[in-house]
Amino acid sequence: MDAQTFEGLKSIISEEQIVTNKEALYDATVDRYKKYAKVKNALDVPSPVSIVYPYSTEEVKSILAFCNENNINVISRSGKTGTEGGLENWKEKSIVVDGSKMNNIVKLDPYNMQATVQTGVVLQDLEDELRKLGYTTGHSPQSKPVAQMGGLVATRSIGQFSTLYGAIEDMVVGLECVFPDGQISKIKNVPRRSGGPDIRHIAIGNEGTLCYITEVTVKIFKFYPENNTFYGYLVDDMDSGLQMLREVIVNGFRPSVSRLYSEEDARQHFSHFYKGKCVLIFMVEGPEGIVKATNEAIEQSVDKFRSSVVEKVDSSLIEEWFNNLNWGQDRIDKEIQDMIENDTHDGYTTEVSADWENIIKIYNNVMHRIKNEFDRVDDLTMLGGHSSHSYINGTNMYFVYNYTINCAPEDELQTYHHPIHEIIIEETLKLGGSMCHHHGIGKYRSEWTKEEHGSAYYMLEKLKEAFDPKGIMSHGTIFPKKEEIEKYIRD
Questions:
Q1: What is the top-level taxon of the source organism (predicted)?
Q2: Residues 6 or more apart whose Cβ sits within 8 Å of residue 3
């Protein structure tokens, strides 16, 4: 980092809050998207010049204003669990602003059913404190043990219980954020208002491209673990399984978990009982009466399609699987060690969404094209998908693919992931679905951002022009940058 930048930052925060250690900067160069190349020391993008750790909103304000004045790219980070390259650096002069030191739980408010926290509060820590009082966030992504609240809101995340509690955008009551010119905006906490457009959504899902989220207030819910029930079924195919899912949801019932796994995806999760079939799962929680009614609805819905049900699965097997689903730092560390020792990793995913009519068409079209068009199909060790988040008008599809890596580390994504990723996105957009259900656009779907939004891209583009006119926030994320796409993705 040049002396002028260093001295400028030192006038805002202490020297101990500025990290220029080479190893730390290398680690901050990318997120989990380029995990294999990173472990193999084969990254092809520049490292940031420093990482700064603000302790307060006022410090974030001063840091952003300094970067804006000096045209320094800012990568907003909180949690480091991004999977789509949103945290990857594409600029020679970038500073990572890491909110993990802003980790105070500001207020737990059970009477008003909400909790206010700073950006760096780990979701699991918030959940643990709420559980002591008999409450829950209702938000449970697999990254729960390490993900931080600001990052979850900024990436528009979703949790495994979304069918019941909603996604993060349904949970956020109010928030505080800082714009690149130093403007601090705080959206008050009210249950609802009709005061013009819902300005929460300028910040929610912005992926650090418009502002830096410093504080969030989220809804909380009463916790009823004594009422949890688990269902599992082996079903003939994805089509009939999706019909069963739809039946439950469109009849007005909301299991906390509703999932359908293809045969191949089921093999890696349920090898001890899947018997070569698709696996349909439900979990129900909440007050006793609601749980009882939902249980009955699930049983009736499945019975309606009983000709496609092979057998019912012992509920204890589903409960055991679910209790071991989340991953923390220990699993991340194990994956890193496996990459070092075995030249392999857990593979990649591409999650999309569509209405009930088209989701099965997208799934079948994608499977057909990959099997017939992907020139490294023989290297695939798994190709499947699962639906894990359902709505009254449709569901998501989480495509999952693993492969044996038979190329140089720096070529892995271009050789394997990108061609598959492109097929999935093409087929989804062709049938009117969304190319990104909950992982965000990051940098590696940005070339399709305009196609994703169509004529509404005008609105998104104007937000960038208004709130980040100098373009210093997360260069290349969400908003396409042709030169870098050709250099880092299409090369």
A1: Bacteria
A2: none
